[in-house]
Amino acid sequence: DGGITQSPKYLFRKEGQNVTLSCEQNLNHDAMYWYRQDPGQGLRLIYYSQIVNDFQKGDIAEGYSVSREKKESFPLTVTSAQKNPTAFYLCASSSPGQARNEQFFGPGTRLTVL
Amino acid sequence: GENVEQHPSTLSVQEGDSAVIKCTYSDSASNYFPWYKQELGKRPQLIIDIRSNVGEKKDQRIAVTLNKTAKHFSLHITETQPEDSAVYFCAANAGGTSYGKLTFGQGTILTVHP
């Protein structure tokens, strides 16, 4: 069963703590993305990776970090430097070599800072 | 970078009416324009997309039109049904590149009243 998964579904964090969100895909996609979703602001790109061991900052990278050690995995760490981390986080993947640049999304992780 | 503006932010229609959502983009090199639907608590899913070499594309009750000169594209839903109620996002790819990086609009909350 192919797809993209995220865990956990809900995550609670105390202020000052780092937390890591998991994203895994078995679609054999080269590219992976992390978005943050807030009400009324659409999907904002945090980081993206086109190939293993390479990634670039998106529009709102401050306070976040990523790694891409394996093609299937693209974890996102929300650090204590992120001033307003409470949000819905979506991971996506795509196969840029295809003419259709469709991005497939995971089910999301809702992060709440207590 | 690319900037995508989406209007309206909310749209309320009666069942059976048509709904139109409009987006403008800033980068004249963009050549791929997808539309995503996100139901409450679910992940965004692609519903239709268009490439810059065509002006219109239809899929049953859904159609998308593109005006490259004016740099705007629109989603048209005919004969709306209550299950069409969701948040709709437009997007444009960045600078005509092929690796799939997308910039999303702010989203439109569509409500279809029975």
* Gap from first CA to last CA of chain A: 36 Å
The run of helices and strands of chain B is: EEEEEEEEEEE
Return Rg of chain A in Å: 13 Å
- Compute the number of strand runs of chain B: 11
Average pLDDT taken over every residue of chain A: 91
How many angstroms does the end-to-end distance of chain B come to? 41 Å
Please give the radius of gyration of chain B in angstroms.
14 Å
**Share in helix of chain A:** under 10%
Biggest interface found: A-B, 26 and 24 residues
Mean pLDDT of chain B: 93
Low-confidence stretches of chain B: none
Note down, in words, how this protein is organized.
The complex is a heterodimer of chains A (about 110) and B (about 110). By secondary structure, chain A is mainly beta. In chain A, about 0% of the residues lie in helices and about 45% in strands. Chain A is built from no helices and eleven strands. Chain A has strands spanning about 5, 10-15, 20-25, 30-35, 45-50, 55, 65, 75-80, 85-95, 105, 110-114. In chain A, strands 2, 4, 5, 6, 9, 10 and 11 form a seven-stranded mixed β-sheet that branches. A four-stranded antiparallel β-sheet of chain A has the order 1-3-8-7, with no helix packed on it. The model of chain A has no long low-confidence stretch (mean pLDDT about 90). In chain B, about 0% of the residues lie in helices and about 55% in strands. In chain B, strands 2, 4, 5, 9, 10 and 11 form a six-stranded mixed β-sheet that branches. In chain B, strands 1-3-8-7-6 form a five-stranded antiparallel β-sheet, with no helix packed on it. In chain B, a hairpin with a 6-residue loop joins strand 4 and strand 5. Chain B is globular. Chain B starts with a strand and ends with a strand. At the A-B interface, strand 4 and strand 5 of A face strand 5 and strand 10 of B.
